[in-house]
Amino acid sequence: MGEPLRQPLEPRTPYPVTTKRKLSSEIWKHRKEYLAISPFYLLFAVFGLFPILFSMYLSFQRWDGIGVMSFNGVNNYRFMLTDPEFWKAVGNTLLIWIYSTIPMLFSALVVAFLLNASFVKFRTFFRIGYFLPNVTSLVAVSIVFSTVFSNNYGLLNYILTLFGLDPVEWLNHTWGIQLAVSFMVIWRWVGYNAVIYLAGLQSIPTVLYEAAKIDGASGIQSFFRITLPNLRPIILFTVITSTIGGMQIFTEPQVLVGNDGGVNGGGLTIVLYLYREAFINNYFGYGSAVGWGMFVLIALFSLFNWKMVQGKGTM
User: Fold this and answer.
1) Residues ≥6 apart with Cβ < 8 Å to 190
2) What is the mean pLDDT of each run of 10 residues along the chain (315 residues)?
3) Can you give the C-alpha Rg of the chain in angstroms?
């Protein structure tokens, strides 16, 4: 028998040259649509992408903001890693995050459950009321809290004296400054996270609770078996966003105790340290290095929180 007839394979050809022309013609055809969305990309390139890239370049330079730049290598990063003030700022930021974020998210979850309860009336009014602090000026809030925690004529000290207790110099102690900043963060962000949790609660199908009630499940069992598993993605979202926001605290301590972080630097956060070094001491190269160091810390800390929440969810 002879060999079977085989059809010759057609040689593979690369994409025709006309593809690029076709792409260009399609872009030109929809030029009005591209022109309509171009302002966003232009603004992002000028005010977003360029500062990011320039700060990376600047972190390897020595520059006072006016004179000529000089290449500094990795000395800015080396000094940052050996500077006790930087690590003090990192420690203060982490402590303020612990003092504020955990109570804030727990309080937001409780508020969301109350707002979602059927026995609560005027729920829309309460939702607006709880969200209102989030749109209030941070400077105004810091000024108000500075009077609340004032050493001499503060509201807290007045309440303590009513109960026969001695007044406390809140802003003369490291823990007092961190407590005041934490209360500001809690007051500002409880309503915001409560609204997010409320949206998550309302997205859970009620048939799940009805089926659990028919099976004899208690309210606590329904909470741990239905509510928490369905809220896990939202809780993860709030934890990550709260971590990013908590590591970037600046206005509260800056208005409350000044650029140096108050007594013993108790309110010196990472961003406040960056601001002091770059815009007060005019070390713009070192300030850029601190900014990128903060970026790495936020990424690592967010990854840790994500792993922790995900790990708890898989148990």
Assistant:
1) 104, 107, 108, 111, 130, 133
2) 50 54 79 86 91 94 89 93 94 93 91 81 78 83 87 86 88 91 91 90 85 81 83 88 90 89 90 93 94 92 78 49
3) 28
Q: What letter does residue 226 receive in the DSSP assignment?
A: I
Taking CA atoms, 225 is separated from 110, 122, 197, 217, 220, in Å, by: 17, 29, 17, 9, 8
Would you call 62 helix, strand, or coil by DSSP? strand
Bridge partners of residue 70, in order along the sequence: 62
CA-CA-CA-CA dihedral for 309, 230, 102, 119, to nearest 10: -170
Residue 154 structure tokens: 């503060």
The model's pTM: 0.82
- Angle, alpha carbons 54-58-61 (nearest 5°): 155
